[in-house]
Write a structure and sequence with these properties.
Blueprint (H helix, E strand, L loop, with lengths): L6 H26 L6 H8 L3 H7 L3 H6 L4 H10 L6 H13 L4 H16 L1 H26 L6 H16 L13 H13 L7
């Protein structure tokens, strides 16, 4: 059955429901632990049915793993001026998105990052997400360069960019990223643009 709500209102309602489910899930994870929290408990706290939960998040893991920012970063990459090095495109796009979020949003993102890096059940999924992101970034790089979406050089470049982004944050794999890490990200992207020279 199709909702009779106008499309814009329907999308806002869906976004609100999704945000409520995630907010309640993260609260329960903090209060009683990830493993101890069930989908039933999350659904009850969010005042939705279990089937509604699964419409928004296929698994409990997806509540944590699903990234609200990747799509925004990819859109920002597409909108950057032509002729820029892919490293500069990614650097500017990440800055653009994260410079625009509120302190509360950044705090929520910190909690999410920490959780998916310290819960063993989530770590394999995290690596899958990095692989998926490499593919998505590669498609944007190829698109901007007028290449085929599966171009090998674009995928290698995307892998280098994502790898450099991870390496630029000493705490990235523990989920303790800091706002100051963006300065290190800038340096990492500058090194890629310069051909990865060694030394200070």
């Amino acid at each position: 059955m199709t909702s009779s709500l106008p499309a814009g209102l329907r999308e806002r309602k869906k976004a609100k429901t999704r945000a409520t489910i995630r907010e309640q899930a993260m609260r329960l994870f903090a209060e009683q632990g990830y493993a101890e929290t069930t989908v039933d408990q999350i659904a009850e706290a969010a005042e939705v049915s279990q089937s509604t939960f699964f419409r928004y998040f296929p698994t409990k893991e997806d509540v944590v793993i699903t990234d609200d920012y990747d799509g925004l970063i990819l859109d920002a990459m597409r909108a950057q001026p032509a002729g820029m090095h892919p490293a500069q495109v990614l650097r500017r796009s990440i800055r653009q998105i994260f410079d625009g979020i509120s302190p509360a949003e950044w705090e929520a993102e910190q909690r999410r990052q920490q959780l998916f890096h310290v819960v063993p059940e989530l770590q394999a999924r995290v690596m899958q997400q990095y692989a998926i992101m490499i593919g998505l970034v590669a498609e944007v790089i190829a698109e901007r360069a007028g290449l085929r979406p599966d171009d090998f050089s674009a995928r290698v470049m995307a892998g280098a960019l994502i790898g450099a982004a991870l390496a630029s944050s000493p705490d990235a794999m523990t989920g303790r990223s800091r706002l100051s890490d963006f300065d290190r990200l800038d340096r990492a992207m500058e090194l890629l643009e310069a051909g990865l020279p060694l030394g200070p």
